[in-house]
Design brief:
The protein has 127 residues and is mainly alpha-helical. It has helices at 2-45, 49-70, 76-94, 98-119, 123-126. The radius of gyration is 18 Å and the shape is elongated.
């Protein structure tokens, strides 16, 4: 009986620790793409299209490297929405469409925030 209880407590502790680590990592990734949206919004205001195109391409490449591991932790729809926002932003930058860029930046920011809020380690998500 005691052995079973000890094993159960160890597994519970390991599960909670893994949840906290993954929530921290998802929070870091979320913050990175929220700041990317803000950075690209500033570049759009300045009409720095060439630099914005290079920056969004770098973020998109980084995101594509991150997605396979991230999809093991969170919902595919959430990662797909960030991917779509980045692609829309890239298209708007190529077209030098200021309104489209601002809209895509807002969507990217909201979708990136959603990654963390949806899967954050909180009582609401545990229950």
């Amino acid at each position: 009986m005691r052995t079973g209880l000890c094993i159960s407590l160890l597994l519970l502790a390991a599960t909670i620790a893994a949840g906290m680590v993954s929530a921290g990592e998802i929070g870091r990734i979320s913050a990175r793409y929220v700041s990317a949206a803000e950075e690209l919004s500033v570049m759009t205001e300045k009409h720095d299209w060439e630099r914005a195109a290079q920056t969004v391409a770098a973020y998109l490449d980084s995101w594509r490297d991150t997605v396979p591991a991230l999809q093991t932790l969170i919902n595919h729809e959430d990662t797909d929405s960030v991917t779509l926002s980045l692609l829309q932003l890239q298209a708007a930058i190529r077209a030098q469409d200021e309104a489209g860029c601002f809209t895509a930046c807002a969507e990217l920011r909201e979708n990136a925030l959603h990654l963390y809020h949806r899967d954050g380690f909180s009582w609401a998500n545990v229950l």
